[in-house]
Amino acid sequence: MGGANRSGVSEFVFLGLTNSWDVQLFLFVFSSLFYVASMMGNSLIIFTVVFDSHLHSPMYFLLANLSFIDLGVSCVTSPKMIYDLFRKHKVISFRDCVTQIFFIHVMGGVEMVLLIAMAFDRYVAICKPLHYLTIMSPRMCISFLVAAWVVGLIHSVVQLAFVVNLPFCSSNMMDSFFCDLPRFIKLACIDTRKLEFMVTTNSGFISVGSLIILIISYIVIIVSVQKHSSGGSSKALSTLSAHISVVVLFFGPLIFIYTWPSPSTHLDKFLALFDAVVTPFLNPVIYTFRNQEMKMSMKRVFRQLLRYRRIS
Fold it and tell me: Which of 107, 229, 238, 288 is the most buried (most CB within 10 A)?
């Protein structure tokens, strides 16, 4: 991947989110707070799962990997967006733009498979509790993780293979605050309707297909939960509601951006900002505050750290 494509374009210029200084100041404070909070929240979940033996189970293994992906999502777009807010000339090199697109789609693909794996984990835990540890073995968990990264890499590489060598003429102005495939393709100086259809089909198929699988699995789980006792049902539904909330937050903006026939620039920017800044923060909040076991584990880890600090 070179620093410029064959038409000589070496950088792209972002038009950004707004030209209003007051709005820029608000977005700077808003985005910075959510970025720091999401980094701390997801790091805390990973740290707690790794160091608390009570959480060494398939569900929390998958949750820690989801938090790792959310850390990546936060790092790919948010730092540059925050840095660019008060810059007059918002630029990104061709190489960095393609790299940003690559990681956005890799992590999007990985997160979809992880959400499906987490739904399967809940299905086994609720519908086949006696066989849970046998089915959700360490080997199965590693297989899910490997499959997630393979799907994410293939999804991203296949799309980039068709667009990385597109010819760009004079326009390098991108009406966005980060590089993504739809706006990247529109800047090419050839007829890109087939490529746009391919991107929509690829991203739309994997996102809508994953959402359908998740909806079916949740329906099966909810029907099965109704057959359990009220106490078990309450706990299962509480855990399930956290999963459903995360799925809605993740797939809502994604499907609208990639499959809506008449996109609105302002709405797309709002959804992209929400997806890049807010969603990675809400995921740890949802899983932490809706999960009593996770809260207890965090308290244990903090107590151990304080005890170790006093001894040392």
Answer: 107
Strand 173-174: give its sheet, edge to edge: 91-93, 11-14, 173-174
Calculate mean pLDDT across residues 261-281.
Answer: 76
Instruction: Sort 75 into a burial class: Cβ within 10 Å, 0-12 / 13-18 / 19+.
Output: middle
Which residue(s) pair with 23 in the sheet?
A: none
Q: Helices 94-127 and 58-84 sit at what angle, rounded to 10 degrees?
A: 150
Q: State how beta strands 173-174 and 91-93 pair.
A: unpaired
- What does DSSP assign to residue 14? E
Distance CA 146, CA 137 (A): 14
Alpha-carbon separation of residue 169 from 9, 117, 127, 186, 289 (angstroms): 8, 44, 57, 11, 51
For residue range 123-175, list pLDDT tens digits in order. Answer: 898 888 889 999 999 999 999 999 999 999 998 998 888 888 888 876 788 88
- Short-list 19, 18, 17, 15, CA closest to 174: 15
Radius of gyration in angstroms for the set of CA atoms belonging to the chain, rounded to a whole number? 21
pTM for this model (two decimals): 0.86
